[in-house]
Amino acid sequence: MFSPRGPSLRELAVQALSSVERGYDLLAPKFDFTPFRTPDSILAATAGALSGLGPFGAGLDVCCGTGAGLSVLEPLCDRMTGVDFSAGMLAQARAARPGATLVRADARALPFTEGFDLAVSFGALGHFLPAERPALFDGVWRALRPGGLFALALGAPPPVISLAHWATVGFDLVMRVRNAVWRPPFVMYYRVSPRPAVTADLRAAGFTVEHRPGLLLARKLAHSEGS
């Protein structure tokens, strides 16, 4: 699962016993050599789905990490911005995408108002408990201009009979036990963001939502009041 250039078992254990922010600061230099990086196939599929929906002026990658998602924005937008709360991950993104504006901020309190035509996010929802999603989506809604588009990569859950299903069940169980007995918490769950619940939260934030394979396209209505 891991490249020889990826983290050691000891490094992963230290990261897992840290806070989310500190854990990603530690993991950042080797993150792109782990299976946690968004696969290129998902990035390419998202770019393909968005290519006919532009043009877009300014693009925002929410929870940009090391900048893989910025590769989707680069050919679609005149300007691109990435936001993340891990200084270590932003340092890697800065090296990979020197043309991007990078901002350190908590995605639950995004510091933008109607500055973007397109927002994307990849692999971040597992870091937000269901009660935190409204703040996240409200912030994205405020960051977009009227008519702006939020593309959220969200794959279908694996079949119950598959090994992947039981691997995600086991991972979430281990994380819940870890967070019950250890502080600070490390919020990362695979099964807290079912598509119906995410869709409902996006609509409550003021978006219309279109379902695509592996993707939700949420548009800010030009005359919506938001939330």
UniProtKB/TrEMBL annotation:
Pinpoint the Methyltransferase domain residues.
Answer: 60-148
Asked if the record carries the keyword Membrane, the reply is: no
Task: Give the GO terms filed under biological process for this record.
Answer: methylation
Show the InterPro entries listed in the entry.
Answer: Methyltransf_25 (IPR041698), Methyltransf_Superfamily (IPR050508), SAM-dependent_MTases_sf (IPR029063)
For this chain, one GO molecular function annotation is:
methyltransferase activity
The record's listing under Gene3D superfamilies reads: Vaccinia Virus protein VP39 (3.40.50.150)
- The UniProt entry's coiled-coil ranges are none
The domain of life for this entry's organism is Bacteria
Q: Which UniProt keywords apply?
A: Methyltransferase, Transferase
- Its protein name is Class I SAM-dependent methyltransferase
Species in which this protein is naturally found: Paractinoplanes aksuensis
